[in-house]
Write a structure and sequence with these properties.
4 helices, Glucose Permease (Domain IIA), 21 strands, Immunoglobulin-like, ten-stranded antiparallel beta sheet, alpha+beta, eight-stranded mixed beta sheet, 305 residues
């Protein structure tokens, strides 16, 4: 008994200190047992969207993924009994292995963290050569000022964060058409290298209906120099879709639309040489391939069946 008492006195400070340390760091002493990532691809590619799933307490106030300084919220799925969300890997993310965190918070001071790592691999997007009228490439001072102002306007509409998830279920293509301009292409216009292509081009006849790829709120309807008649749809949680070169727009800013709602019609306005739709996606600032979004969200939906 004397030995047991002596041993208890030796370890008593450690037993007291451990819970105190967990309280000071804001972490639950049951973090590892009650909150963990169940699945995440350990290897990602530049410009793609990936899904992530985590198991944890069902009454958490919030759950989100931290990746490269951005937060990607996650939602609890009743059918799956887990938290699920999406991560956007920007097209120019430097190939490397990055730390990511899945963080859950409750109404009190508890914080649950599940650390992971994600390897990002390089993608060769290719080069596209185009010939356009010089008036659309070599801009005069007045036109350049307009272009810069419109770029700031568009970027501002893509920076707002709506703390509400408006999209539900798998995303769809806004039009069915042949891919004429792939995501990420380095464009050479009239012999000069220009910016990468941050969306995809889908060929379609002029007047073809353009549909909302998912539910959301219209945050921009305008006619811009480069993208012509344009619509930007906010799906919430930092996720936006863009529809450019329309022949006409059929919505106004502030409208809430459901998936499949008609936003406008295919055209060739702005800097364009043929009738097509430019479709772009941003996720918390990350420029991602729109074609990766329907696939990953459809897979998520199948897992809940």
């Amino acid at each position: 008994m004397h030995f047991v008492a002596l041993l208890f006195r030796q370890f008593l400070p450690i037993l007291i200190f451990t819970p105190l340390l967990l309280v000071l760091t804001g972490q639950s002493p049951y973090t590892q047992n009650h909150f963990r990532a169940e699945s995440l691809p350990r290897v990602a590619k530049q410009g793609e969207v990936y899904s992530i799933r985590a198991l944890g307490p069902t009454l958490l106030k919030s759950v989100y993924v931290e990746f490269q300084g951005a937060r990607f919220p996650m939602a609890f799925g009743e059918k799956r009994g887990a938290y699920e969300g999406l991560i956007g890997i920007d097209m120019n993310t430097r190939p490397s292995t990055y730390p990511i965190k899945i963080v859950g918070t409750n109404e009190g001071s508890g914080v649950y963290v599940s650390p992971l790592s994600l390897k990002v691999e390089k993608v060769y997007f290719g080069v596209q050569k185009l010939s356009l009228p010089s008036s659309m490439v070599d801009l005069d001072t007045k036109t350049l000022e307009r272009v810069n102002q419109e770029a700031r306007q568009l970027e501002a509409s893509l920076q707002a964060f709506r703390d509400e998830r408006l999209w539900r279920g798998p995303f769809i293509r806004p039009v069915e058409g042949k891919l004429s301009g792939a995501f990420g292409l380095s464009r050479v216009i009239n012999g000069k290298r220009r910016n990468q292509h941050t969306g995809i081009d889908l060929q379609a006849e002029e007047g073809t209906p353009v549909l909302a790829c998912n539910s959301g709120m219209i945050v921009l309807v305008d006619q811009l120099f480069f993208s012509g008649k344009s619509v930007v749809l906010d799906h919430g949680w930092g996720l936006f879709s863009m529809y450019f070169h329309l022949s006409e727009t059929l919505v106004k800013e502030g409208d809430r639309v459901n998936q499949g709602a008609m936003l406008g019609r295919v055209g060739s306005t702005g800097r364009s040489t043929e009738s097509h739709l430019h479709w772009g996606i941003r996720m918390n600032g990350a420029r991602v391939d729109p074609l990766s979004l329907p696939g990953v969200t459809k897979t998520m939906e199948k897992k809940t069946e």
